[in-house]
Design goal:
Blueprint lengths: L4 E6 L9 H13 L3 E6 L6 H10 L4 E6 L1 H10 L6 E6 L5 H6 L5 H9 L2 E11 L3 E3 L2 E5 H8 L2 H7 L2 H10 L6 E7 L2 E7 L1 E5 L22 E6 L4 H12 L9 E6 L2 E7 L3 E4 L2 E5 L2 E14 L8 E2 L2 E6 L5
Parallel strand pairs: 1-2, 1-3, 3-4, 4-16
Antiparallel strand pairs: 5-6, 5-16, 5-18, 7-10, 7-14, 8-9, 8-13, 10-11, 11-12, 13-16, 14-15, 17-18
Helix pairs in contact: 1-5, 2-3, 6-8
Length: 319
């Protein structure tokens, strides 16, 4: 039986420490499982996607993103429409994709998933030309401003609560702006405080499902316009998400895209994707169906389909 090999992209600043502890746990687990690994620690200036593409040529059995959702997006961009399965070790502050797909948040259990029995799930992607592919959401407006202004230290110290803190501060003096929105071939103008393009139903927190029926493998993106000016308006939106009554709030409007979405605003607004600041608008995105296969919990020997995407069941990689 040939020794299995894994290429692991580790973001050392994604979690609460410098990555030393995570690297030790990862190395110990794969050694005990009989795998050979190469751990590549990312740096701020490098192109993680290109680095990952070069590793694919080396013939690794598994490519792993160890970090937050930004690291997952960078690694996943290299795997789009390839036969490689991406493993996810959620060591970041938000870990929205891991939460959505049921990947264990405890590092030891996530490692057991990768070297043990698991399924692979095909998920769609949001392609942003010039920036790569993203798997959670993209937004322009207040939410992107909050993410842009959240420091790395705040994220490491508070996790996703840091975004709520910055979002609350961003509400001060908030006014709707004019957005020009094209969904597939239909263009319209709207006044809103945020435009969100969602690949998944949740906002990284399972209880907060902005689009309960959204699925990561349905070949569509959900486009949500949000018009809210006060903390009370946003509280009503949060309640609508928690209670699954999105249709009962006047502050949200939903459209669906199968091909592309373009967003512009006057005045120009900041843009984020999977928690990463991309710059100021305008922005164009494309729908990429069944873009990447991700290792997820699954029953071996059974075929399955799910609202969260198509499942491919695979026996342990040690077989």
């Amino acid at each position: 039986m040939a020794t299995k090999r894994a290429f692991i992209v580790l973001n050392p600043v994604a979690g609460p420490d410098d990555g030393t502890e995570a690297r030790g746990i990862i190395a110990a687990h794969f050694a005990e499982a009989g795998w050979e690994i190469e751990v590549h620690e990312t740096s701020e200036s490098e192109n993680v996607t290109e680095c990952t593409r070069s590793a694919l040529v080396a013939g690794y059995d598994l490519v792993v993103a160890a970090g937050g959702d930004g690291t997952v997006a960078a690694v996943g961009s290299a795997l789009v429409w390839t036969d490689h399965v991406m493993g996810v070790l959620p060591t970041g502050s938000g870990n929205g994709l891991a939460r959505e797909l049921g990947i264990p948040l405890a590092l030891s259990r996530a490692l057991q998933l990768l070297t043990g029995d698991h399924a692979s799930r095909e998920i769609d992607a949001i392609e942003v030309p010039g920036h790569g592919h993203f798997f959670l959401n993209l937004s322009m407006g207040m939410s992107a401003r909050a993410m842009r202004d959240t420091s790395r230290e705040e994220k490491r110290r508070l996790g996703w609560l840091a975004y709520l803190w910055r979002g609350g501060r961003a509400l001060i003096g908030l006014q709707p702006v004019h957005f020009s929105l094209t969904v597939d071939d239909e263009t319209e103008s709207v006044r809103a405080t945020d435009v969100l393009i969602a690949n998944l139903g949740s906002l990284g927190i399972p209880a907060l499902r902005l689009v309960p029926e959204a699925a990561s493998g349905d070949g569509e993106l959900d486009v949500i316009t949000i018009r809210a000016r006060t903390l009370w308006d946003y509280a009503r939106i949060v309640w609508a998400m928690v209670s699954r009554r999105r249709g009962r709030t006047p502050h949200l409007r939903l459209l669906r895209a199968r091909r592309r979405v373009t967003i512009d605003a006057s005045p120009q607004q900041p843009v984020q994707a999977d928690g990463e600041y991309l710059g100021m608008g305008p922005i164009e995105v494309r729908v990429v169906p069944a873009a990447v296969r991700v290792a997820v919990p699954g029953a071996v020997g059974k075929s399955a389909h799910s609202k969260s995407g198509r499942l491919r069941v695979k026996p342990t990689l040690l077989d």
